[in-house]
């Protein structure tokens, strides 16, 4: 469940441990580590404040000196929507390294036997700096699926697709305000200090980039969320800039350069599918964990000449081919006029 107030217990293998750093406008100390379970599912765990300094230092030291992967047991761990779905310590959390529990010992032995495979699949998500180049998502052994296949894929999974990206909804909010401590989103555009019921202390709100983007391939079109540094890179601006334009100045973002950058490009995208339930139904959401432009393969002379057999009609230049729902690759494309650009 995303953004749940519930706290969970975890038992997981540590694949990577990031350095101690400072995050947010309030410069809270934290350390990010990549976890994996015995089903090869990977999650990002953020160790906040003393957890990053004490337990995080212990984890980093053991990983540097011991040959085998280590296992941690965490209690009262929180869930957040950072990078799609992630975990984080709370004030009442506890973290134990290589505990002597039967379940932990069993997982440690399994990690020893599968160390090579686990490290080959490890995803480097330990850095959230906006200056970092998006990671390569076509890792060895990972299978690409079509956009249409995502709807039938199981929940809580990570998938890899090749698709075009487009921002068709220009009137959406491109950032939210969240608590600088617990990262919970707040339905407000006022950044004044407030008493956070989850953190139990007075704190500030910080802007976070997050918006909806459409993924399009030859089989279907679907909508996914993109956030944090990946969203900032796509918009060529920081979350602070987005908040200043959309909330402080109450203007719309100019996306002309974004549309131009995305035009006629295919990206290799790492997606996480998550689900959350209400009293009547269960809903699925998609989040982009990483993306990278696919290398362009130059067309042959024959391919280039084939494009010149007949002149392009004006109606074809003005139209955009999209499919309205997931279906067969033989589905007839529907041509729609481009979404009008919202003027600043």
Automatic annotation (TrEMBL):
Region of interest called Disordered, as start-end residue ranges on this chain: 294-344
Domain Replication factor A C-terminal: 173-286
Record's compositionally biased regions (Pro residues): 335-344
Compositional bias segments (type: Basic and acidic residues): 294-313
Pfam families per record: Rep_fac-A_C
Annotated SUPFAM superfamilies: Nucleic acid-binding proteins
Listed InterPro entries: NA-bd_OB-fold, Rep_factor-A_C
Biased composition (Low complexity): 321-334
Classification via PANTHER family: RIBULOSE BISPHOSPHATE CARBOXYLASE LARGE CHAIN, CATALYTIC DOMAIN-CONTAINING PROTEIN
Name of the protein: Replication factor A C-terminal domain-containing protein
């Amino acid at each position: 469940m995303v953004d749940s107030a519930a706290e969970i217990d975890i038992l997981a293998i540590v694949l990577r441990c990031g350095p101690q750093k400072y995050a947010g406008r309030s410069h809270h100390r934290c350390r990010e580590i990549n976890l994996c379970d015995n089903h090869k599912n990977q999650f990002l765990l953020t160790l906040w404040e003393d957890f990053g300094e004490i337990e995080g230092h212990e984890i980093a030291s053991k990983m540097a000196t011991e040959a085998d992967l280590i296992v941690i047991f965490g209690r009262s761990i929180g869930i957040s929507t950072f990078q799609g779905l992630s975990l984080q310590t709370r004030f009442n959390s506890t973290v134990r390294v290589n505990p002597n529990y039967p379940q932990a010992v069993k997982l440690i032995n399994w990690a020893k036997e599968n160390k090579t495979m686990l490290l080959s699949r490890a995803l480097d998500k330990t850095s959230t700096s906006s200056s970092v180049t998006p990671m390569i998502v076509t890792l060895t052994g990972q299978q690409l699926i079509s956009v249409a296949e995502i709807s039938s894929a199981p929940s809580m999974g990570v998938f890899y697709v090749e698709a075009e990206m487009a921002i068709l909804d220009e009137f959406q909010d491109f950032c939210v305000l969240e608590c600088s401590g617990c990262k919970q989103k707040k339905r407000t555009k006022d950044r004044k200090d407030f008493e956070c019921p989850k953190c139990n202390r007075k704190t500030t709100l910080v802007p976070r980039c997050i918006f909806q983007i459409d993924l399009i391939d030859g089989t279907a079109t679907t909508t996914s969320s993109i956030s944090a540094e990946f969203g900032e890179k796509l918009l060529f601006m920081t979350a602070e800039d987005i908040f200043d334009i959309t909330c402080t100045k109450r203007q719309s973002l100019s996306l002309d350069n974004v549309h131009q950058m995305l035009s006629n490009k295919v990206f290799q995208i790492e997606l996480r599918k998550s689900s959350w339930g209400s009293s009547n139904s269960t809903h699925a959401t998609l989040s982009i964990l990483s993306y990278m432009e696919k290398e362009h393969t130059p067309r042959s002379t024959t391919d280039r000449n084939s494009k010149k057999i007949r002149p392009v009609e004006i109606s074809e230049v003005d139209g955009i081919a999209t499919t309205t729902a997931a279906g067969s690759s033989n589905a007839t494309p529907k041509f729609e006029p481009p979404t009008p650009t919202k003027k600043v």
